[in-house]
Amino acid sequence: MRLAALAAFVAALFTSSPGQANSYRDTSKPMGVVTNLDLDRYAGKWFEIARFPNRWERGCEGVTAEYGRNADGTISVRNTCRKGSPTGPAEVAEATAKVVGPGKLTVNFVPWLPFAKGDYWVLYVDAAYSVAVVGEPSGKTGWILARTPALSQAKYDKAISVMQGMGYDTSQLRRVVH
């Protein structure tokens, strides 16, 4: 029942009017993506290091995302949120993503609502595929991800620099506790 409610909530978020969510990005600045993204290397578990506030992750700590390749070419998505603290109760949301262009995916957490999709653009990934920056053109969402729950200051600063270069106001980022 909780997953069904979460799925309905996520669908409402993706289909809500643009004026209902904050934008953390100056959309007049160009936004680039990783055009040579290797989805096999990108697959696996990522820890959410920082995010822009959003309604569906309110109260979440210890957040992880796991991506996998499906036989039909789609990507499986499994997001886990720990409510209240890194050891709090887990809430899991599963989705399917489709590649729509180099470095660009659409994610759908509610398969029976085909219009309830969200953009997921990989803006940066380091050579080791250990740090990634993800966002979407409207600037309503954005994340810094890493393969480990902690990130060196130099790698964090690089991720911040990428976001700032694409018009994000990184003063609004919130660090995630692991």
UniProtKB/TrEMBL annotation:
It comes from the Bacteria. Its main location: membrane. It is found in: Cell outer membrane. Residues 37-176 form the Lipocalin/cytosolic fatty-acid binding domain. Keywords: Cell outer membrane, Lipid-binding, Lipoprotein, Membrane, Signal. The keyword Cytoplasm does not apply. It holds the Pfam family Lipocalin_2. InterPro entries: Calycin, Lipocalin_ApoD, Lipocalin_bac, Lipocalin_Blc-like_dom, Lipocalin_CS, Lipocln_cytosolic_FA-bd_dom. Residues 1-21 form the signal peptide. Involved in the storage or transport of lipids necessary for membrane maintenance under stressful conditions. Displays a binding preference for lysophospholipids. Belongs to the calycin superfamily. Lipocalin family. Homodimer. This is Outer membrane lipoprotein Blc. It comes from Sinisalibacter lacisalsi. The lineage of its organism: Bacteria, Pseudomonadati, Pseudomonadota, Alphaproteobacteria, Rhodobacterales.
